[in-house]
Design a protein that fits this description.
By secondary structure, this protein is an alpha/beta fold. It has two domains: 159 residues, Mannitol-specific EII, Chain A (3-Layer(aba) Sandwich), CATH 3.40.930; 106 residues, Helix Hairpins, CATH 1.10.287. Helix content is 49%, strand content 16%. Strands 1, 2, 3, 4, 5 and 6 form a six-stranded mixed beta sheet that branches. Strands 8-7-9 form a three-stranded mixed beta sheet, with no helix packed on it. Helix 1 packs antiparallel against helix 2, helix 3 crosses helix 5 and helix 4 packs antiparallel against helix 5. The longest helix is centred in the middle third of the chain and has 24 residues. It is elongated.
């Protein structure tokens, strides 16, 4: 999927405002100026009401103000680059440099979640953030986002090829999660330089008690990310900071087996 299908080049702009509310108003006004919507004040009120329910500063200098409304027929997104970081009360208490505002109908919620998942993945990587920070202008940032969007889509395609492997976790008892966490702690000791025979023996003994399906999945995830586990709190994955859709949450809560995040693949620790 090409980024232009979700975020056209002309929708990436430098914003002049230096306060959260003013940045959001400026982005909505841009959509109106582009002829994508009318009555900018109406949509501004809707977005700001959504902000009172849950702050959309997802961390790493990135925010995703949005509203779902059937008064539009398409996914409308505009990406703002702040001249200076703005206070946003993000969950990580860090100021925001980039604000992606979206307005979309209910039927396109999945498309929106794909876009947010992709952008959150990009901004969760410090090296990629540094590249974007160094680029500074819309004309230089857009090619970077386009390249990263393609890489993300390719990685999602690979994940989809492994869906059967993820589905194979169905029926693996949730007690395996405790064993996997203990195993991960032992591996971290090994990675830190402890090569003792005693540690190796503990690892091998623990592996014998873990279901081969969950063990294989854990080992793949350990190669992909530093921490294969994430806390699920307030319907949000603590690893990728994505909100789990209600339908998926219902499945997770109804399971007595292992659950993984549908976005990043981490094992979910439910608190």
């Amino acid at each position: 999927m090409d980024l232009s299908e979700l975020l056209p080049k002309e929708h990436v702009i430098a914003v002049k405002s230096n306060e959260k509310q003013l940045v959001i108003k400026e982005l909505i006004q841009k959509l109106q100026d582009l002829g994508k919507l009318d009555n900018a004040d109406r949509y501004y009120a809707q977005v700001m009401h959504r902000e009172t329910l849950e702050n959309t500063g997802v961390g790493n200098g990135f925010a995703i103000p949005h509203v779902r409304t059937d008064s539009v027929k398409k996914l409308l997104t505009v990406f703002g680059i702040c001249n200076e970081p703005i206070e946003y009360e993000s969950f990580d208490n860090q100021p925001v440099k980039y604000v992606m505002l979206s307005i979309f109908p209910t039927l396109l919620s999945t498309k929106y979640l794909y876009l947010v998942g992709m952008m959150a993945r990009i901004f969760s990587n410090s090296e990629k953030r540094d590249k974007i920070d160094a680029a500074r202008t819309p004309s230089k940032i857009y090619p970077i986002l386009t390249k990263e969007a393609k890489l993300y889509f390719d990685s999602i395609t690979e994940i989809n090829k492994e869906e059967n492997q993820i589905e194979s976790l169905a029926g693996v008892p949730s007690s395996d999660l405790d064993l996997l966490i203990r195993l991960d702690q032992l591996y971290r000791l090994l990675d830190s330089g402890d090569k003792s025979e005693a540690l190796t023996k503990k690892i091998n003994e623990l592996r014998r008690f873990i279901d081969n399906r969950s063990l294989s999945y854990y080992e793949r995830m350990r190669q992909k990310c530093q921490n294969p586990f994430a806390i699920l709190e307030k319907n949000t994955c603590g690893g990728c900071h994505m909100v789990i859709p209600p339908a998926e949450m219902a499945k997770i809560k109804g399971k007595k087996s292992l659950s993984v995040c549908t976005y990043c693949g981490r094992f979910l620790i439910i608190v």
